[in-house]
Design a protein that fits this description.
Blueprint lengths: L1 E11 L1 E2 L2 E8 L5 E4 L2 E3 L6 H13 L1 E19 L5 E18 L11 E6 L10 H12 L12 E2 L1
Parallel strand pairs: 1-7, 6-9
Antiparallel strand pairs: 1-5, 2-3, 3-4, 3-8, 6-7
Amino acid sequence: MRKKLRVAAYAICVRDGQLLLARSPAPGGGFEWVLPGGGMEHGEVPYDTVVREVEEETGYLVEPTGLLGVDSSRRLVPGRLGRSVDHHGVRLVYAARITGGELRYEANGSTDMAAWHPMDRVPELTRVSMVDKGLSLWRERPAAGRVVGPVDVQE
């Protein structure tokens, strides 16, 4: 079985009781809201990854103010020629504040828009589980840098 590791960095940006999210096409159609952020390039520092990704997806310049924690997930995904891929995602979650820029949508990227959402309305959104995990890290600020729960392995 082929193994694949992906390291990514995401931002929790909260301002005036609202959370900044980006919208991404969902598997099978439709859209889902995601935390702004994404994959780390080879040789890139995670701090720089989150700054770059937030600007790409939202137009905002950010300053990460703290590392909230690290989330890890594994899942088996279909691969070429019927061979499964053991995908391991390591996701660093930062608290970040907006320091400049203006809200805009990403062109030709993995997201198609960005928007602020009232925190109490986030549960109503179609969103990836990482939004909830990131918010748990932001609210709880666990000393160990992880939200305690079952191991996230999907088959």
